[in-house]
Amino acid sequence: MKKVFNIIKTTVVWLMILLAVSMMIFTVISCTTFNRNDRSLFGYKMYIVNSDSMSATDFKAGALIFAKEVDPATLKEGDIITFMSQDTDFFGETITHKIRRITTDAEGNPGFITYGTTTDTDDETIVTYPYVLGKYQSNIPGLGTFFNFLKTTPGYFICIFTPFMLIILYEGLRFFSLFRRYKKEQMEEMQAEREQIEAAKEENAKMLEELKALKAQFESTQPSEEQEPAKEEAPV
Predict the structure, then answer these.
(1) Range of the domain at 67
(2) pLDDT tens string 148-177
(3) Domains identified in the chain, total number
(4) Is the model's pTM score more than 0.85?
(5) Mean confidence (pLDDT) of the chain
(6) What is the number of other CB atoms lying within 10 angstroms of the CB of residue 173?
């Protein structure tokens, strides 16, 4: 039972470590890659959706979308593209909308008329090739909201700081427990050595008493005085 408990405890600790490290990695990736037009991962750019302009058909606010860099000339009507908006109200923002039709701007540059499927309203300006960032591929609902939460102070404390502090606390308690066990075992060893020394002393004292008794017994069996034999007188 104790072995099973130790396995479960070790598993939980490693899961917490994995969780905390993963949250740190995700946070770094989120800060350095998401919503960055100059960054891509394996040819894909990732963006966090901040509006429901496409929620009627494809994805909602809070989703994490993946857009792949493509040649704008290969795009067609019905494709969903990510682009840098030139509209008055959203100038410079990253938008992901559907292509309604292919056209050209006032200067004859090829581009696209785009719209959000929720409102079905065309965007203000034509999206020309230089502002196309990629073609929409897929999305993970809600993941963008989670990554935004990770970048907040509560998200940092809940998902990163708290797991690491729990691990540090657990390791501190485990170290203290191991130290106490070591000191206890050390004291037990010292006590055992003292008992062995005392036992050896008692054994030596007992042997000494036995030697004294044997000596006394030996001395009691010997005559107290030895008689010298009489000398014969020589004849005259």
Answers:
(1) 37-143
(2) 887 788 887 887 788 778 888 888 888 888
(3) 1
(4) no
(5) 83
(6) 10
